[in-house]
Backbone:
């Protein structure tokens, strides 16, 4: 099966071009990304146009609307990353169209999971064509200990090296060394707090997990 994940603005032609280019059949899925709150009726008109088209092709095509909070950029990126991770079949992602702030968040989510996406497309405003694009792989490969540390920080932040060591049963020197490496990757940041340093996760850290 194929899962189309596409930004959705006021123009349904981009999504139609996507479907025509790669084909669609019963059992496939279309996921349109829309803001959590919207007042302009043109957004719903676009959704309805795609819904009508999918039903004409095959009633078993699953059309879903995925809502994101456009006022919280970090939350959007993490949510869209989760959407991609949980999508089934061959994922075809269209990163053109839709509000700019959602476009940027979706692009970052796609970049962080480029190995999971089968095809990525972008509709050109210059030549009015839907083009295939190749996403570079920019995510780092984490060691198992580094993943454990990041997950621990997410659950317990703000925290410090001593507390992490106790919870994970590692030596403080091991935690200190790994935290330093993760800081170099911008996965976490350290804030001086008296004689220790307070550790918090960054958006990059969440994307790496």
Residues:
């Amino acid at each position: 099966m194929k899962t189309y994940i596409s930004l959705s603005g006021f123009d349904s032609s981009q999504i139609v071009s996507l479907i025509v280019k790669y084909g669609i059949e019963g059992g496939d899925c279309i996921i349109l990304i829309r803001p959590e709150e919207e007042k302009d009726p043109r957004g719903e008109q676009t959704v309805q146009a795609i819904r009508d088209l999918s039903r004409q092709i095959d009633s078993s095509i699953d059309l879903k609307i995925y809502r994101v909070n456009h006022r919280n950029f970090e939350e959007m990126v993490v949510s869209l990353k989760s959407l991609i991770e949980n999508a089934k079949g061959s994922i075809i992602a269209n990163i053109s169209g839709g509000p700019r702030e959602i476009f940027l968040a979706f692009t970052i989510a796609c970049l962080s999971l480029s190995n999971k996406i089968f095809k990525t497309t972008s509709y050109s405003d210059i030549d009015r064509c839907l083009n295939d694009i190749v996403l570079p792989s920019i995510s780092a490969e984490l060691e198992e200990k580094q993943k454990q540390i990041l997950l621990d920080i997410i659950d317990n932040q703000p925290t410090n090296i001593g507390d992490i060591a106790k919870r994970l049963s590692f030596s403080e020197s091991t935690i200190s060394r790994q935290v330093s490496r993760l800081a170099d990757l911008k996965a976490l940041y350290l804030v001086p707090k008296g004689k220790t340093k307070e550790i918090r996760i960054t958006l990059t850290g969440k994307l790496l997990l």
The radius of gyration is 20 Å. The CA atoms of residues 9 and 98 lie 4 Å apart. Residues 144-208 form a domain with the Arc Repressor Mutant, subunit A fold (CATH 1.10.10.10). Residues 41-57 form the longest helix (17 residues).
